[in-house]
Design goal:
alpha+beta, N Utilization Substance Protein A, Chain:P, domain 4, OB fold (Dihydrolipoamide Acetyltransferase, E2P), five-stranded mixed sheet, 13 helices
Length: 414
């Protein structure tokens, strides 16, 4: 059988495998695909006017066979045995095959060596295109392996090493486990912490937010330092009661990148327990604040409020507005989840927080729309009338929509 020489083929496969952290089989497969594209290009340049070449799957019966021991490759074609040949690239005459295989039958297939003359092939072969295809296929193999390796780790926390800055993003090196090779992950600007000081080779804990699919450019893994999942992990890592399911994290609201630079990062975390003799808030704070301080240090000084969850919405909302002192919580519209919180005048700014951050996080934590009111200026009767009017308006709209639905169904049936 003929052979097109590829000098130092085995060494080349080994080198690419090491440099790209790919199995040799994956590198060999990528090279075979690239060489087959080169063969297609060779054939097309030899017969530019052949309309059959425009068919997408015309060369689907061709393959490249690599031979590292011999230092080269062959091109093979699978052809069907027919009585009369109409497509020489896909068919071969029975009379021709019988000369070699006497018991051959119509409809059988044979694999033939169709490797071109080495000198002619090398001179006509689009070497640049072959190299481009090889790089593309290697990237595809890398992306597929990364996806398979990290898919199950999505939503977990990894140890990352800072590599470089790239257009506002920080490129990190992460690993799926001990002894596994590092791969690059992108930490976008919006997922960074404002107080982080990113230094080359420094290590950070990051939350694996997404394993991206598809042929897009850039890192395939997207990590975060701003996601609430990182806070959950850090508390679970520091508080044994959370790891043992004695204390449960019910909800987390985090603002790692506030809209204004004058407001610092802040998180509210609601915890609960089914054990009567366990204080869930105290367990998270630790002796002299040791546990929560470890989390704060990892998050570069981010302020964290640990509050007690309650099945009673009023109590839960009051707790969520910590450290403000709440006098009363009025659940004005339970269905619409609207609450008025009454506080003393000297607690107004604390309850609202700088640029509204405290009440904003409390609303996100509880799922209620919270209006902070000055207790001394609150007109109970007027507020009740206003809320009642809103409820009646909503009920009227719902009734109107219910009346219109049968009409719409009749129109569709017609």
């Amino acid at each position: 059988m003929s052979l097109v020489n590829l000098p130092n083929l085995r060494e080349m496969l080994d080198l690419i495998s090491r440099d790209r952290n790919l199995p040799k089989a994956a590198v060999q497969s990528a090279l075979q695909e690239a060489l087959l594209k080169g063969y297609e290009r060779y054939r097309r340049t030899r017969d530019l006017n052949n309309p059959s070449f425009n068919e997408e799957d015309y060369f689907s019966n061709f393959e490249v066979e690599l031979s590292p021991d011999e230092g080269g490759f062959r091109v093979l074609a699978t052809k069907m045995i027919v009585e009369q040949v109409t497509s020489p690239d896909h068919e071969i005459a029975l009379a021709e095959v019988i000369e070699v295989v006497p018991d051959a039958q119509l409809g059988d297939t044979v694999v033939l060596d169709v490797t071109p003359n080495e000198g002619e092939f090398n001179s006509r072969m689009a070497a640049i295109q072959t190299k481009q295809v090889l790089n593309q296929k290697l990237r595809e193999h890398q992306r597929r392996l990364i996806q398979e390796e990290f898919q199950d780790l999505e939503g977990t926390v990894l140890q990352a090493r800072m590599v470089r800055f790239e257009r506002g993003s920080v490129i990190m090196a992460v690993s799926s486990g001990f002894g596994r090779p590092e791969v690059e992950a992108e930490l976008p600007r919006k997922e960074q912490l404002p107080n982080d000081n990113y230094r080359v080779n420094a290590t950070y804990r990051v939350y694996l937010k997404q394993v991206q699919e598809g042929p897009h450019k850039g890192a395939q893994l997207v990590v975060s330092r701003a996601d609430a999942g990182l806070v959950v992990y850090l508390f679970a890592n520091e508080v044994p009661e959370i790891e043992d399911d004695v204390v449960r994290i019910i909800a987390v609201a985090r603002e790692a990148n506030p809209p204004s630079r004058t407001v610092g990062p802040r998180t509210k975390i609601a915890v609960d327990t089914l054990e009567r003799d366990v204080d869930p808030v105290g367990a998270c704070i630790g002796s002299r604040g040791s546990r929560i301080q470890a989390v704060v240090n990892e998050l570069r000084g981010e302020k964290i409020d640990v509050i007690r969850w309650s099945p009673d919405p009023g109590t839960y909302i009051a707790n969520a507005l910590s450290p403000a002192r709440v006098e009363d919580v009025r659940l004005m519209d339970p269905e619409g989840r609207i609450a008025h919180v009454l506080v003393p005048e000297d607690q107004l700014s604390l309850a609202i927080g700088k640029e509204g951050q405290n009440v904003r996080l409390a609303a996100r934590l509880t799922g209620w729309k919270i209006d902070i009111k000055d207790r001394n200026k609150y007109d109970t009767a007027a507020e009740d009338e206003r809320i009642q009017a809103l409820i009646e308006e909503r009920l009227a709209n719902q009734a109107l929509e219910a009346e219109q639905e049968p009409e719409l169904e009749e129109d569709e049936n017609a």
